[in-house]
Design goal:
alpha/beta, Rossmann fold, two-stranded antiparallel ribbon, elongated
Length: 289
């Protein structure tokens, strides 16, 4: 693949030629802007006002490689090694899932409820990139944040993100399904755990299957709710303080089943919450006081 010139207008044309119809015109424009910002640091205004601006040959090669990886289906967030979540810029690698906008709604749910609470300990289970824990610490600076994950590689990345953002979160390696209670009772237990079964893989996008970590995508065995059962068990036991909140993200079709699990665990105030698209996406429950 060779770009027909070294002006920004040539590169933009190259993006459209190579990426349509794999992506819509709107998506190609976004990808071009992201690439120009990542490779050259160009703003949207520069791209709009200076289409004849020229780049170096080495930078031209970087654009070509960028497009080549996109054509293979690699997510742009992995190509750039970063993403944005709740206005926070996070380092990213194939060791962790790409944070989704729906997960921001889970963070908002907790922030709205506890914005005026002074003493608060929140634990994020299956933290991955650390996006939930870090966003909660950013918007609830008075809270004590801890987070856990089975993957040592994910925890290292999450810790890097915490250092980069100067946010204090305690990370620990923890096998949620095998371990006992948390090391200390918490006021809020939050999680976006794996909830896809291997049987459902056939219906998934190759972009997700080929690039995102299966450890973070798939529940072990055939029980899609195995992590939610464990979270309900932890919340009903000494890991969650009386009056504490359990809040999780789940597949929209399984929200009623998760809510039923929480009710069976003798949790109260069980609620299903919708995301911005109007789909059921989160379930919350309170431990009896």
């Amino acid at each position: 693949m060779k770009i027909g010139g070294n002006r920004l207008s040539d590169i933009r044309k190259f993006f459209y030629t190579q990426l349509e119809p794999q992506y819509s015109k709107e998506e190609v424009l976004v990808l071009f802007r992201l690439a120009a910002g990542w490779i050259n640091g160009f703003s949207h205004l520069t791209l709009h006002l200076e289409p004849d601006k020229r780049v170096l040959e080495s930078e031209l090669l970087a654009y070509s490689r960028f497009v080549k990886r996109l054509r293979k289906g690699e997510p742009v967030q992995y190509i750039m090694g970063k993403t944005w979540f709740m206005d926070l810029e996070l380092k990213l690698s194939p060791a962790v899932l790409i944070p989704r906008p729906e997960t921001e709604e889970l963070v908002n749910l907790i922030v709205e409820q506890y914005s005026n609470t002074d003493s608060l300990h929140i634990h994020d289970a299956c933290t991955g990139s650390g996006c939930i824990a870090l966003a909660l610490k950013h918007y609830l600076p008075q809270a004590r944040l801890s987070a856990s994950d089975l993957s040592a590689e994910a925890l290292a990345l999450a810790a890097d993100n915490a250092r980069q953002l100067q946010l204090e979160v305690h990370f620990e390696q923890f096998d949620l399904l095998q371990a006992g209670n948390l090391s200390a009772p918490v006021d809020v237990l939050v999680s976006n755990p794996p909830y896809i079964t291997h049987k459902e893989a056939a219906g998934m996008s190759s972009t997700v299957l080929d690039y995102e970590p299966h450890l973070a995508l798939f529940a072990p065995g055939s029980d899609a709710l195995v992590f939610y059962r464990k979270l309900a068990e932890l919340a009903a036991g000494p890991s969650l303080k009386p009056g504490g909140l359990l809040a999780v993200e789940c597949h929209y079709q399984r929200c009623p089943e998760v809510a039923a699990l929480f009710s069976q665990a003798q949790l109260t105030e069980v609620q299903i919450h919708q995301d911005l698209s109007g789909n059921p996406r989160m379930v919350s429950a309170v431990k009896r006081g």
